[in-house]
Amino acid sequence: MNRASSLHAPTFSPLYRQIKQLIMGNLESGEWGPGDAIPSESELAGRFGVSQGTVRKAIDEMAAENLLVRQQGKGTFVATHKDPGSAFRFLRLVPNDGVPQVSQSIPLECWRAKAGPDVARTLALEPGAPITILRRLLKLGDEPVVFDEIYLSSELFPDLSLEVVRAGDSLYGLFESRYGVCMVRADERLRAVAADRVSAELLQVAEGSPLLVVERVTFTYGRKPVEWRRGFYSTRNHHYRNELG
Amino acid sequence: MNRASSLHAPTFSPLYRQIKQLIMGNLESGEWGPGDAIPSESELAGRFGVSQGTVRKAIDEMAAENLLVRQQGKGTFVATHKDPGSAFRFLRLVPNDGVPQVSQSIPLECWRAKAGPDVARTLALEPGAPITILRRLLKLGDEPVVFDEIYLSSELFPDLSLEVVRAGDSLYGLFESRYGVCMVRADERLRAVAADRVSAELLQVAEGSPLLVVERVTFTYGRKPVEWRRGFYSTRNHHYRNELG
DNA sequence: TAGTGGTCTAGACCACGTC
DNA sequence: ACGTGGTCTAGACCACTAA
């Protein structure tokens, strides 16, 4: 039994948390990719030399963080944005009347640039590092409701282009399968602003009418920031839903 | 060991979940009030005739839902809105520059009315049931940033008045200590709107400038809705912070 | 020192999915 | 029939708090 690193060190962490870090390592290195089944609990217990209950507690935490998905009788799988259900985890906009609608992503522009100080800071890049900027419109039903401007490191997403985006499924599904970058967590900041001319035209609202602005920093494993985006949400027929617990 | 109600019934629930419901019952009945210590795990295990691990799993879930708070070496306590830390769980508005500010609640008006069909529906009351409406302004630092209109059942909050609100600490702290109603969960809907005259004046912004509207239904134990409120948030120097996981 | 929650183990059995 | 995760038990020991 490995009780190493416990002794009165200030950096003590219980065994199950060390196991968790080992599993995290396999996710970060891409050894176990999104959608894959990870080894069974007893297999991992044997491999790490701990009891099954300890592995279980490690996996429990990761399942609670949406990193893994357990399925009784089948196994434990690396979370993916491709299965339905996980698809809308990051889009909190829902129609006021509750009727679910088909979503359609319309890429508008995609170009390269150099990171300004602000983008560099939020994405943890060198100022001047190459970035890719993507603009797209999101329709729910027939109505345009979100205008997004998305900033990405060109190094992480090398050949991103309008064609690539058009071909793929959901954006995060594409990032996952094409670039091996799995979006896991995000921080959002919401404000109300008056629509500028571009947004107003795209969202088919009057210039100056109130819009919801959502700034999002998205993280992959290990809290590494990999996406920054600003979205203009039209809240005429939709609202941003949030649960406080 | 009580494995009752398991047999192939469609309403099967594991033992630890039945224990959880028993503990929930003690919270709903007010037998264990906010801030109180609940009996120790071994005590409960003996009382319910199950192993300590099973009680532990029940408490684990309730701690994850912020119903209980564990403190190593001391015991497990019913969550309360009075201890700092829990105080800002339901206010997601933070200053743009990150500097924390003193908050000050200023009650404006408080009157009685009869529930309209909409309020009755969201609060699960009979249409026409007596309700109490409270308006208040929230200042962060010296700046007015939130104008709230709050709807409550007069039956649950009998003698609520401007004086009572002025005297108390935080609103949810008051509800807890004076009326024994503990706010546990909330659903929020966010929209961007143009400021009307009243809101604009109170929040010291121009009429028609964009405001964030936050509609909230707040629940006590057992998902019982007990509060409905609409808040107008000024997002000039603040933003609504949200984490997606 | 005594009591609490926190961790870890080992083993039994159940529920589910697949072959 | 077999392997997976899900539940439950019993007991040991650790870490923290308070008297």
Automatic annotation (TrEMBL), chains A, B:
GO terms for molecular function: DNA binding; DNA-binding transcription factor activity. Keywords: DNA-binding, Transcription, Transcription regulation. The keyword Cell inner membrane does not apply. It comes from the Bacteria. Pfam families: GntR, UTRA. The keyword DNA-binding applies. PANTHER family: MANNOSYL-D-GLYCERATE TRANSPORT/METABOLISM SYSTEM REPRESSOR MNGR-RELATED, MANNOSYL-D-GLYCERATE TRANSPORT_METABOLISM SYSTEM REPRESSOR MNGR-RELATED. This is HTH-type transcriptional regulator YurK. The lineage of its organism: Bacteria, Pseudomonadati, Pseudomonadota, Betaproteobacteria, Candidatus Accumulibacter.
